[in-house]
Write a structure and sequence with these properties.
By secondary structure, the protein is of the alpha+beta class. The protein contains 15 helices and seven strands. The strands form two sheets. It has a five-stranded antiparallel beta sheet. It has a two-stranded antiparallel ribbon with strand order 6-7. A hairpin with a 2-residue loop joins strand 3 and strand 4.
């Protein structure tokens, strides 16, 4: 089993059970099943897995188990279900790994790490509500969004692909990359699932990598991905990633922007989601608007997010919310965005109704 440079800090020991295998298990493949205790008000799987942090997850409605979230994380294929008190999982490891780990405790800890279940979100939300009136105003709309703990290489490539793009298309790009250079884990729910390519695999194909990426319609991003793979290898690969975790947030971000195609926003996403720098606050257009309306009214007439404005907004969030400012940004983003979508639908619906009546 490939081991990961993941730090299990303050992981809570939670009870587990092994659930009997009932519905499909491909031949010659081994599944481990278990559960992790977490209240549903501490974890919204939809927003956490499908909200643009990772691009490897899908939601299915399966007859024998209801709603199921399936995806690949840490080079294993996962199926997750949830009730009010627990997450239940079935996990299949990469069959090409020489050492297979058939240990529920191992996968319990892996899932806890991925979803950062050692972080008491409800307790922190109570604290954040006292730090700024905006958070208190949103208290009835706040969603249990968790910041994923992802592998850096996958996160870097994914967020290079995310530039001027949408979740559906990013997901298809990452799926192509995995099916071309990763290992096949198995065939599940009518779809082949693959590991994310190792750095060694991408470096091995570096001569044709950019051309192959362009042929897969990844566009101008192909050059950045191919060049970043070379740079990461030159910097030391996994050892470099480990060093970024040990650096201060600002030092780690300054290192990341040395990679082709990586600006401060993408570097902040990587710091937040892969390097344990939870004070990192990515600023996009939506958060810019939130800052203008609720946090920094002096920016009301500012039209664009310049580097100076970007830093001012991020620093403002850090001054208010402290070492977990990046997490508050994720919660605010999803809560505000969902409310915006609800209001937009309410505004559009009467117009659609009128149009339908007109067309009759």
């Amino acid at each position: 089993m490939r081991m990961f440079s993941i730090q299990f800090k303050n992981v809570v020991c939670l009870p587990f059970i092994v659930i009997p295998l009932h519905y499909y298990q491909p031949k010659s493949m081994h599944a481990v099943q278990g559960k992790v205790a977490i209240d549903e008000n501490q974890l919204n799987l939809d927003l956490t897995l499908l909200g643009g942090q990772s691009f490897r997850w899908e939601k299915l409605d399966v007859n024998d188990c209801g709603t199921l979230w399936k995806g690949v994380a840490y080079n294993s294929y996962w199926e997750l279900t949830q009730d009010s008190k627990n997450i239940y999982y079935k996990v299949f490891a990469d069959p090409q790994e020489k050492k297979y780990v058939n240990d529920v405790n191992f996968y319990n800890n892996l899932l806890k790490c991925y979803l950062r279940l050692d972080f008491d979100l409800n307790d922190h939300v109570k604290k954040w509500r006292k730090m700024h009136p905006h958070f208190e105003e949103l208290s009835t709309k706040l969603k249990a969004v968790r910041v994923l703990h992802q592998e850096p290489l996958e996160n870097i490539v994914s967020f290079i692909c995310s530039q001027n793009n949408n979740i559906k298309r990013i997901s298809s790009m990452i799926q192509w990359l995995c099916s071309t250079y990763g290992h096949k884990i198995g065939h599940f729910h009518s779809k082949d699932e693959y590991t994310f390519p190792s750095l060694e695999s991408l470096v091995k194909h570096q001569k044709e990598l950019e051309a192959q990426l362009r042929s897969a319609k990844i566009g101008y991003r192909a050059k950045f991905i191919a060049q970043s793979v070379v740079k990461i290898h030159e910097f030391g690969g996994s050892k470099w990633f480990d060093s970024l975790r040990k650096m201060s947030y600002s030092e780690a971000r300054n290192e990341l922007v040395k990679l082709p195609g990586i600006g401060f926003k993408v570097a902040d996403c990587i710091c937040l989601m892969s390097l344990n720098h939870l004070e990192s606050v990515p600023i996009d257009t939506h958060i810019f608007k939130v800052a203008q309306s609720a946090y920094m009214p002096q920016l009301k007439n500012v039209k664009a997010v310049t580097p100076k404005i970007y830093e001012e907004i991020a620093d403002n969030f850090r001054n208010i919310y402290g070492p977990y400012a990046g997490w508050t940004q994720a919660v605010l983003f999803c809560s505000e965005l969902q409310q915006f979508q609800i209001e937009t639908k309410a505004e559009i619906s009467p117009q659609k109704a009128k149009k339908k009546r007109t067309n009759k």
